[in-house]
Amino acid sequence: MKKLLENVHIFSRLNDDELTLVEGICHAQEIPAGQLIVEQNSTGKDVYIVSDGSIEVFVTVDDADKVLVFLGHGQLFGEMALLDQGHRSASGRAGREGCNLVRINSDDFKELSERHPSIGYSVMKHFAMDLAFKLRHMNLTSA
Amino acid sequence: MTDDETKEDTIIYKVSYVVEGGGHPGAIINADHCPEPGDKVSFDGNNYVITAVQELMPPIGDFGFLHAAVKLA
Q1: I need a surface site. Which of A18, B27, B31, B73 has the fewest CB within 10 A?
Q2: Whole-structure pTM over 0.90, yes or no?
């Protein structure tokens, strides 16, 4: 699992000891194709990292689903749970090939960051850039 | 190593794949090598061929940030 974490941008500047600590709050999950992982407007404190396969991110408007993006290896999903306690802004389900995920509870991460501020600082420093990259992608697909 | 330095042999590429013609949400996937035009990539249950690649953001640390245009293979 540590190898995956090294390939996730927000963890990319953590040293080996710090990655081991993060690994300690990670939980692997295997999700079959099409299974809902999180539901729009629900509450949840889990952040997901795609290990293999993909997540289809979508919003439901007037009973119709609109896919926003497919997230593959190394991508974060549900990451706003790290920032606020708001409802999920989008739903996510496993792609056609299913997916393997790593789940991190945001409370566990906040506790880890309080005990090891260097981890929290490094992750949050890269977090904004990850969101910016997603916004750039959305702008490109909307053009 | 500072945030501004990179190691060619260990760079991970965060790639924004955009399907030509619009109407598709595209995908974001990390790659362990720099994608090039002609390379194949799969997402959404389909196979795509890369037609163009450009830098989306300057590289930071061991990460490169790219945009790749693709079309159905």
Answers
A1: B73
A2: yes
